[in-house]
Structures are given as C-alpha cells and as structure tokens.
Amino acid sequence: MSGLCFLFLGIFSLFSSSSGYEQGWMDAHATFYGGGDASGTMGGACGYGNLYSQGYGTSTAALSTALFNNGLSCGACFEIRCVNDRRWCLPGSIVVTATNFCPPNNALPNNAGGWCNPPLRHFDLSQPVFQQIAQYKAGIVPVSYRRVPCRKKGGIRFTINGHSYFNLVLITNVGGAGDIHAVSIKGSRTNWQPMSQNWGQNWQSNSYLNGQSLSFKVTASDGRTVISNNVAPASWCFGQTFAGGQFP
Prior knowledge:
The protein has 2 helices and 16 strands. Strands 2-6-3-5-4-7 form a 6-stranded mixed barrel. By secondary structure, it is mainly beta.
C-alpha cells in the first residue's frame, strides 16, 4: 500500500437503541495497586496499553473474576464509595473504568490475601483513585458499587493491528454502557461479518480487508448499537487509529 499512513478521524455513525440497564448498589471490597503515580496500572488484560494516552488516566480498576466476565466487562464504568468503616473511609464516591483483571490467588484464603478469588466481587483500584475514598494505610476497605454510564469525549476509537488475514481491532473510548459484547466489520467490497473476541477488547477478523474502506458495528452490553460507516478509508494501514460514532 503506497502513501504515508497517518491518523484519520472519521465521524460517520448510525444509532439504534434498546432499553438500558438498571442496577442498584452492591457490596464488594477494594484494594489498590500500581504505585502513587499509577504507572503500574499501564497495559493490563483489557489491552488498552497506555491508559494516559487512551484517555482513561488514573480512574481505573482491575476486576476480580466475578466481575471481569472474561474481558467482556472491559470498558464498563462503576461508581464506588467506601462504606461501613469509619476509621478508614473518606466521604464521597469515585467513578472508574474497568481496564484490567485482578487474578485469583488460590494459595491464600478469601479473607486473607485472596481478595480476588471467586466468587468475591473485588476492585483493585489505582492508588491515586483509591486514596480519594479511603486512607492509604487501610489497605483494603468495604465498598458499595453500581454501574453508571461512561462519559467519554470524542468518538469510539478503533485501532487496527495485526496483518493481512488477521485484523486485530482494539476498541477504546466507549461511552454509554462502556463494555462491548459484539462487533461486526464490513469492507467496502464485503458484507457485514461478525468479529470474535480475541482478548480484552481486542476483536479479530480473519478476512482479507486490505485496500477497502472499513465500517464497524459495535453493540454494548445494554443492547444498544452504534454503526460507524467507512470510518477507515481504503488507504488505512495497520497501527492506525480511527474515531467513529459514539453512544449518546
């Protein structure tokens, strides 16, 4: 493919919607990781890489198995508040995006180090955001949490990695429910084709799509769908990121 590859931002979308989700406050626990600057939270099991450049910052969490849903919960947003511990809790609440997995530690009991063991609901927060709701010395605190809409600036972003016959698309900056449960891709010379989840929010297609403009159909956990038509031009290159539509 000739020509220079550059970041191309296209905003073409169609929306269809169904009823959203409703969830009250639920009980869990929270710890923290990643250091005071949250540098240790970069990367992670959702595939987002540099959380600063992707726009997630330090308001992030790693989820236990009970919440992670094999990566399908990546991108979901949660409001969390510290409860029932007057010694360590601070007033107020935080909103975090799920960006990582907190693995179980079956060598330790659930109440003494195995905080992320099934079936426990647990949030391993970045240290800066943990310290907004609890004191550092607490280590672990009881919390209440609920799902909330994600509020993102700009469109859903599609980063196309891989190579010919292996298109691996990382989907980031998703508003609304935040967590994507189905993706389809369409080349300018193909019909819509379902993609499969590879890991985290990386979605895979094994079709040869080089030299075709690309459209994406993204369905979130609440059933709402955004279609971003021709968001990547026919001159797209692997490694590029394109911005499409967004959930309202």
